[in-house]
Amino acid sequence: MGKAGAPEKLIMHGKRLDSRKLDEFRPMEAAIGVIPQSRGSATFSFGDTHAIVGVQGPGPMHPKGLQEPTRTKLRCHYFMAPFATSERGRPGRSRRSTEISMVIGEALSNVIFLEEYPKTALDIFMEILQANASTRCAALNAASMALAEAGIPMKDLISSLSVGKADGQILLDVAGAEDNFGDVDMAVATVGGGDAFVLLQMDGVITLAEFRTMLDMAKHGCAVVHKKQKEALMKHYNSEEVSL
Amino acid sequence: MSNDYMKKLILAGTRADGRALDEFREVVVTKGVIKTAEGSAMVTIGKTKVIAGIKMDAATPYPDTPNEGNLVVDAEFVPFANPEFEAGPPSEHSIALARVVDRGIRECHAIDTEKLVIVPKELVWSVHIDVHTINDDGNLQDAASLAAIAALQDCKIPKYDVEKKQVVKEATAVVSSGKSLPLQDTPVEVTVHKIGNKLFVDPDVEEIEASDARVTIASTENGDLCAMQKGGNGSFTVDELVKAAEIAIEKGRELRERLE
């Protein structure tokens, strides 16, 4: 559609605008235990996309009428800070954030043993402090790490990333102009770096063959994210001093 | 009937109403059902019924698309359609449904929005699609998407009075210019559900209760994929997703024939 401000090419000689290769991540950073007052917390970033997540609960569920007798009510709250984008965003809930909160909750409910905490509410608060694409993926990665730190029983971590298509090429970890002017953006998440896709959102036009390629790239990429998450958890606990 | 029974049937490759796993219930598309709307359509899939209505208005363009018309999709889960629905502000489910319908239409540029400019950078047509559920017996997403595209095909652009700077209206309806919307594709959404290792389409409410996971896939006239969204709990493997996409393309072709 030739949007205003689009660069002439997003890929030159197999390199992207930020000089990454097609299947290269932006630098990833992950840490847990970043919000002492929350039960569990984590940050995750893909390059300039920074997510911070805190878990509260399981606690009392109000109103009681919404209690679930056999399991905890998982409540996900994804928000984008007004200062996280080039133009100030409206604070609070939007249709976009409502939808993203929902799909993140659906993804997480695959791994959390919700029945461990009947009649309670478990809240996951996700804030995007700085946005440069793949914000829902960063939020989901941090959320599953924060849940691990909170000691919520889980089957495994969930690992998420985006793949996309620009200038006819399939890309890992979409960012910047690729997000604004690329052809396709697909956010996915898998369990434990394996073959179980628990989140999938695709926008743009692709062929069936391209879809297959993107899924394979995404699956391998999620395994790399999973490793990064585990390393951050291990690092935290190995560095904590043991007090007797 | 219990979830377990529904699961058992699907796993055995059968269904309570005797359909094949990849078979839709009867699909009926009726265009032009609302006189006051610029475009409208009613879609029934079995007992599921939705109505999509389109209103168009002259509006300022969005800052990032100054020379394109606007598209807005909303969905209203009217409480009479399902005892589970509640009155009040839109639920997350109705928001997600509307946004997935929106993306199916938007991502393949089904509407040539560049042809919806009245005064460049100042005034464009805004196409507002509202989908209302009348009866929910499952598969609202596919019904809503089909109704939306049918309503777009039915839509006539209103007459615009450039001197008075307003849409020409009569007592009960706007005056039509007689021109159809500039459409370039016919995206159709098909939601593929999963129980165990079986994939199936067009569940009724009882089958939805038993479903492990679902993925909605929009496909274009020439068989490309143009939007996708996994929903519900549960997961898919790579092979299952590719198979689901194949099913969605094939079933999408069948549904598209209903639009003619």
Instruction: Write the CATH homologous superfamily of chain B.
Output: GHMP Kinase, N-terminal domain
Q: What is the fold-level CATH name, i.e. the topology of chain B?
A: Ribosomal Protein S5, domain 2
The sequence of SSEs of chain A as H and E is: EEEEEEHEHEEHEEH
Helical content class of chain B: 25-40%
Can you identify the CATH class of chain A?
Alpha Beta
Main β sheet profile of chain A = 5 strands, mixed
Write the layout of secondary structure elements.
The complex is a heterodimer of chains A (244) and B (260).
Chain A: E1 11-12, E2 15-16, E3 28-32, E4 40-46, E5 49-60, E6 73-80, H1 95-108, E7 120-130, H2 135-150, E8 158-166, E9 169-172, H3 177-181, E10 184-191, E11 197-206, H4 208-239
Parallel strand pairs in A: 6-7
Antiparallel strand pairs in A: 1-2, 3-4, 4-5, 5-7, 8-9, 8-10, 10-11
Helix pairs in contact in A: 2-4
Chain B: H1 3-11, E1 27-31, E2 39-45, E3 48-59, E4 70-76, H2 92-107, E5 117-119, E6 123-135, H3 140-154, E7 156-158, E8 160-161, E9 166-167, E10 176-180, E11 188-195, E12 198-201, H4 205-210, E13 213-219, E14 225-231, H5 238-257
Parallel strand pairs in B: 4-6
Antiparallel strand pairs in B: 1-2, 2-3, 3-6, 5-6, 7-10, 8-9, 11-12, 11-13, 13-14
Short note summarizing the structure:
Chain A is an alpha+beta fold and 244 residues long. Helices cover 27% and strands 32% of the residues of chain A.
